Amino acid sequence: MFNKFDILLFNNLPEGETLHVHCVSGYEDIGEHAIRTSEYYRFSFRYNIIQANIAWCNIWWNGDRPLVEKCDFKECRWYFQQDGVYLKHIPQNRLEWESDWVK
């Protein structure tokens, strides 16, 4: 009934660039965080099938936002880079391109 998900957001942007995130898990506002280059932010939540709660994040860098909306694994590793956003495909240990940055 309760599946645990770990979300990791990695800032792989150029040196000195800050990635901003504001996440909500279920009904809990996790708050806004500034992630420096080469650092990451991690949070976990438990998916409740009955309440159908989800986690989501607003993410931005230099006024641009990515268009990402999925996570198919129990541990989601998002990599935010200058050329776009990547999701790590853990079983195959590779990054998959997911989105450009959009205004």
TrEMBL record:
Cellular location(s): Secreted
GO BP annotation list: rejection of self pollen
A Pfam family assignment: Self-incomp_S1
Top-level taxonomic group: Eukaryota
Keywords: Secreted, Self-incompatibility, Signal
Gene Ontology, cellular component aspect: extracellular region
Entry similarity comment: Belongs to the plant self-incompatibility (S1) protein family.
Protein name: S-protein homolog
Organism (species): Saponaria officinalis (Common soapwort)
